[in-house]
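Chain A, query sequence.
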Amino acid sequence: MNGALLGLLAYVALITAVGLAIGRRVSGTRDFFVAGRSLGPGLLFATLLAANIGAGSTVGAAGLAYENGIAAWWWVGSAGVGTLVLAFWFGPRLWRVAREHSLRTVGDYLEHRYGPSVRAAMAGLLWLGTLAILAGQLIAMAWILEVVAGAPKWLGAVVGGVVMTIYFVAGGLLSSAWVNLVQLVVLIVGFLIAVPLAIDGAGGVGAVVESARAVAGHTDFMANGSSGWMYLILLAPAFIVSPGILQKTFGARDERTLRLGVAACGVALMLFAILPPVLGIAARTVAPGLENAETALPVILTEGVPAWVGLLGLAAVLSAEISSADAILFMLSTSLSKDLYKRFLRPDAPDRDTLRVARLAAMAGGLAGVVLAVAIPSVVGALVIFYSLLGVSLFVPIVAGLHSRRPSSLEALAAAGAGVVALLVARSHGSEGWLPPSAWGLAFATVAFGAVFAARRVVGPGLR
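Chain A, predicted structure.
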């Protein structure tokens, strides 16, 4: 067993132990779902940033840069833009509604605003999409273990799945927030040290820039290949209405905390967005013939920097994947326990039973994520499925519902249905044409919402 693998296993054992220790403080669903609404700006910032920097932001972004160059910045940068919109426009509005009506999940809000049918429909959709993004995190962990230890993909996915499930099941949001703080420190320190040393190992800034210029389009910032500004359409709406992110904001102790914590996260994402692409371009300089571009990041951290820096960098990447994975388990467990079990199957369930179902749902989600990770070929491919589905189904109903009480469940269901159908049709054509599939989905969702709203006004308020 090599030193890098031993170091990673020791780090994994540490964060698992922290999660289990914090989990002992959890006494009910209020702690598990919204951390007792006690998160301050620093802890909210840490848990949001750690959750948002995951497989796509590290392994995926570096792989995109390996293939497309500096335009890969938009993958994480677009998430930062959406997060800033959440901080100053959307988040405070929803937080006030959640506090006033004691809402704990996005499903609670959807039922409060539109009724139980919308809650059930969205919960089912999100379960399907969320499993895809969970698989993406596990695929990234598998690539790390493949490069470091030669482990097969299935084994890397299993190891990652077991770790994230253990400490999340122990304590939910309260446990995740504190573990995320540890992970965030490792993540930021690891990348800040690894990037300059990786550039130096690739021959210096001049050599890396020359390498980028030698490949057509690699220095084009706005767009090249599959990367560029078009990620705004895919990612910004998803980061505004993501249930995992919104539910973390429900844990803020007040509106000022929410604005400060979420805004700081948005700025940090936009700054961080440049680091993985630089590492991806440096990896192309060091190892220009990689068969799998998504191994660019672990390759540069094992071949292009000193061993101790590589270990720190790999721990940072592993932190990113695990912290995002526990945020995804957060969505899965709360969706099943609160939005389906507590609401429809057993409304009179005591708090301890709802908590038990939440933990069982997290374990089931972790297992399903491992199975999907073995089947789906790439990190970015898995994440695109999730972000597309999230944006076209939730963005229009949630945003419209916060700004008007007049639309009903019919508008919400029509928007979600039309958005998903348009997305699937656009993706089935294989070519994005002049608009990406997610843009078609958002456009049709908006049109369907408006058309049903207009029809109800003509027919009368009885149409619901």
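The beta strands are 223-224, 227-228. DSSP finds 19 helices and two strands in the chain.
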